[in-house]
Amino acid sequence: MTFAAVLFDFDGVLVDTEWAIYQSWKRVFAAHGQPLPLDIYTRCIGSDFATWSPKTHLEELTGLAFDWHDLDARRQEEIMADLAHERAMHGAVALLENLSTAGIPRAVVSSSSHHWVDGWLEKLGLAGHFNTTVCRGDAPRIKPAPDLYLEAAKRLAIPPAECLVIEDSLNGVHAAKAAGMAVWVVPNRVTEALDFTPADRVFRSLAEVLNMESQPTVA
Q: Per-residue pLDDT for 217 more than 50?
């Protein structure tokens, strides 16, 4: 398969942030005697709480109202502590270097904020590997709407049909498909049990993407 650009989701694809975020929510639920199964939680992965909200879910389960401002602040501290020594996903740097050498444009496309994504890219030394970064606020709607991916294609001046998306969530897969793009999935430990039938291919890691027999080349 031949592609003119590769668009990467961020959370769970380039950095394993999803597990720490999920664990922070599990602790909140457990503190109120409630479980939070992965098959329920994954509804919001790759999007926001308009798709499905753990906050609304916990309030419905307990019949309580919560001070989410305070809880979110504590969760964020826990998340950052858990991720203090986190590095890029296995195979990420090598794949990005390979694409750069081949002259294939790269973009990050995320439903998260620029503050979160850009901060991580700088921290891990990945920012220079990308031609552009498209995040929440750069297009009218986030995933599962196609807007962010279409904005990335526009910035790169490449037709959507010539772009390959690498995702880890169903919301991301739906967004890429709605944008008319091919999508490969690299699940992580939060999303590995999901049914990724709508994706074009599924890989175990970014290293496997790099080592596949038919690597992306310039169209």
A: no
Query: Residue 65's domain is classified under what CATH number?
Result: 1.10.150
- pLDDT above 50: residue 213: no
- 97 and 141 in a single domain? The answer is yes
Same domain, 12 and 43: no
Examine residue 218 and state whether it is found in any structural domain, yes or no: no
Catalytic, 70? Answer no
**pTM recorded for the entire structure:** 0.92
Q: For 169, which DSSP code?
A: S
Helix axis angle for 170-178 and 147-156, nearest 10°, is 60
Query: Domain check: are 132 and 181 in the same one?
Result: yes
Of 27, 53, 82, the residue at which a domain comes to its end is 82
How many domains, the chain?
2
pLDDT tens, 124-151?
A: 999 999 999 999 999 999 999 999 999 9
Query: Is there a catalytic annotation at residue 9?
Result: yes
Of all helices (H) and strands (E), which one includes residue 106? strand 106-109
Per-residue pLDDT tens over the stretch 46-97: 887 777 899 999 999 999 999 999 999 999 999 999 999 999 999 999 999 9
**Residue 178 in contact with residue 205, Cβ under 8 Å?**
no
Pairing of strands 163-167, 201-202: unpaired
Q: Catalytic residue, from 11, 16, 147, 168: name it.
A: 11
Q: Please state the rounded mean pLDDT for residues 34-38.
A: 96
Query: Do 130 and 74 share a structural domain?
Result: no
Helices (H), the chain: 18-31, 38-41, 54-62, 68-82, 92-101, 114-123, 147-156, 170-178, 206-211
